[in-house]
Amino acid sequence: MKGNKHIERDENATKIFNDRNLAQNYRNLTQILQPGITVLDIGCGTGSISRDIANNIGPNGKVIGIDNTESFIKSGQESYQSVSNLELIAVDLFDYNPDIKFDLIVSARTLQWLSNPKEALIKMKSLLKPNGQISILDYDHSNLIWNPLPPESMQEFYSTFLKWRADAGMNNKIAEDLPQLLQEAGFHSIEKINSDEVYNEGDADFKSKIGIWSKVAGSKQMVEEGYLEEELRLKAIEEYNNWIETSALSMTMKLNEVRGKL
Ligand SMILES: C[S@@+](CC[C@H](N)C(=O)[O-])C[C@H]1O[C@@H](n2cnc3c(N)ncnc32)[C@H](O)[C@@H]1O
């Protein structure tokens, strides 16, 4: 059974994922969506972007979203049960062996969490049809831009977050390394498309979008693993929330969409 802290973490993440959509959070993908294709969305979270892809490709197409966090899949199955060409499955990418192959495999903000992204790309390759295409959307966390800089406490929290990720084998600038990784995994016709997300004061969802870092700091994991004092974590949340209310002008999250063909 999952502990309370996991439930809390999953509920926070569920809200973040449900707020995402294709138009704002995977905006260039529509260029390669065609009516009637079969799409696999890996690490789909609650499936809100998968739902938009399903609606875009129409009733003759099919989207399967997979995620290895069961609560995200359960939430999506409830929310999007009326979308008849969308299926959400709780399974790990490395254990997923479907009977069908896909025209297009997409994966947004997922390889950033893996210590073996090349193996994941090789696994994805095995799930594509001949002539199939892959599209990976991911972050360069090492180049996040805040304007103005947030309080020292949040800057320290963020640099600790990057160190914690790096120590766990995650690539903080995977967005920049994806073209090379796709090439090494055997893809060709590789394209890199800038997909930065820029949030400006005055945007309707500005505070909730830039508030992502208070939500990340809401997790006690780095404290429990000895990376951070609890006092600094709480200070970072409080001072960052105050900065959002009083000083924040913009935040840019650096992302690339990288495509490749078989
Ligand atoms: C940051 S979320 C991205 C959700 C969604 N794609 C989006 O862009 O909003 C990354 C997701 O990848 C899932 N994930 C991580 N490793 C996975 C694996 N090996 N197989 C399947 N899903 C995985 C996590 O459970 C999480 O939901």
Automatic annotation (TrEMBL):
Cite the Gene3D superfamilies for this sequence.
Answer: Vaccinia Virus protein VP39
Q: Which Pfam families match?
A: Methyltransf_31 (PF13847)
Instruction: Please give the superkingdom of this protein's source.
Output: Bacteria
Segments forming domain Methyltransferase: 34-185
Q: Which InterPro entries match?
A: Methyltranfer_dom, SAM-dependent_MTases_sf
Keyword annotations of the record:
Methyltransferase, Transferase
Q: Which GO terms describe its biological process?
A: methylation
Ranges annotated as spanning the membrane:
none
Q: Does the keyword Ubl conjugation apply?
A: no
What's one GO MF term for it?
Answer: methyltransferase activity
Task: Give the protein name, as stated in the record.
Answer: Methyltransferase
What is the phylogenetic placement of the source species in the record? Bacteria, Pseudomonadati, Bacteroidota, Flavobacteriia, Flavobacteriales
